[in-house]
Amino acid sequence: MAVKSIPMPTADCRLPVPMAKPRVQFICQSCGAVHARWAGKCDSCGEWNTLVEEGTQGGGIGGGPAGLRSPRKGRPVALTTLSGDIEDAPRIVSGIGELDRATGGGFVRGSALLVGGDPGIGKSTLLMQAAAALANRGHRIVYVSGEEAVAQVRLRAQRLGAASAPVELAAETNVEDILATIAEGRRPDLVILDSIQTLWTDVADSAPGTVTQVRAAAQAVIRYAKSTGAAVVLVGHVTKEGQIAGPRVVEHMVDAVLYFEGEGGHHYRILRTVKNRFGPTDEIGVFEMSDKGLREVANPSELFLGERHAAAPGAAVFAGMEGTRPVLVEVQALVAPSPLGTPRRAVVGWDSARLSMVLAVLEAHCGVRFATHDVYLNVAGGYRISEPAADLAVAAALVSSLTGLALPGDCVYFGEISLSGAIRPVAHALQRLKEAEKLGFAQAVLPPGTEDLGAGTAARAFQPETLADLVARIAGSRARRVED
Ligand code: TYD
Ligand code: MG
Questions:
Q1: 195 lines ligand 1 (CB under 6 A)
Q2: What is the per-residue pLDDT for 62?
Q3: Going by CA atoms, what residue is nearest to atom 21 of ligand 1?
């Protein structure tokens, strides 16, 4: 690791610093903490190699920690009342259902929204489609690309069949120039800035993409949104560590954060709400990438269950929820004898600590032994489950794979497992059951005493008190099969 030259301590210890001489500071690109000296590790967040030298002149406007300018005399602002006319509808609806669902019912006027995601996942495509849809509905939409030339953006628009939409387009990266441009004419309803990492403002003198620049640029743009009532969408690339580059800081500043996710090799994309000051945070929008852009997927369960074959040991269908929407996914387990002293545990799409817990409960309370077996768990379709309600489906898949007994192909599972082996109730049982029914599942294994299931549904439901009851039922299916 290269050791950078360290500023002389005497120069730094004298406080306050009265002169306007530019001073160097080292800013953590992960958490934004300011350090007087370079170091390999950030004291504040513990990340390595994230400190970058940035000048302080003018950086960190608005009292940011990255350096201060001498304060100017304040100017009085007009105070107003709570009641009063609200001129426009507070939200701009794109008509792209999955997008409107993720934003909580449309873009909010005067707000700033960050769309994050890996490079190449389809952020620009999504926003171009949204821009075209909104422009076709008569809104003034400005799309500013800092990454691509006008010709490239046009090419994409043609491919999306959006070239005729009255979107106003520019390729520009300077924030002051962008704001001066959009100040002309009618106030835009939505301004899309693609991407925040390419923007730079005159008031900060570091390179584009550094924390200081990104923060200063975002601040300027957000101030514009709040003062004019235009909605602003910022696009942000995620670094390989899974953060918006430079900028947790931006996540704190904006009103809503959406992540656009997808798995390599799969065509579907999920727009996930991570933060939303004006709506729910657990919503998702599901899209499929086609050769003509993103297509809405109104029924994600069909997508995730689409590749399901006849019932095989180790597969269980989990009836999950994403926000207000039920989603059915297949959980697959493979339990195989291990040649290793310490058997392998591998998980894709679920929490590995949670798998260890389910294995421990199966061992301790149900007498099922995995100590000499490798365990692999996979959520089909590259989907990611975050709900504890998947415990029961995972346990069923594990037991099914270990015993070689296939679970019924028309059965869904949901329920949380406690360390004592009891099955705990989870929310939205009825909605999960309805979705399962809609997709042709005739049976369900779910927690006892959840909600009133109604006569029709209750007939097909098995509600085990403990995990041992479920294990006994799966093991008993062998005996039942022999009888048949
Ligand atoms: P893009 O929106 O440029 O990604 P981002 O802005 O997140 O970096 O999308 C790039 C990918 O999407 C690229 O690999 C090609 C693919 N794509 C399609 O498959 N179909 C399409 O119609 C378009 C426009 C892109
Ligand atoms: Mg892009």
A1: no
A2: 42
A3: 293
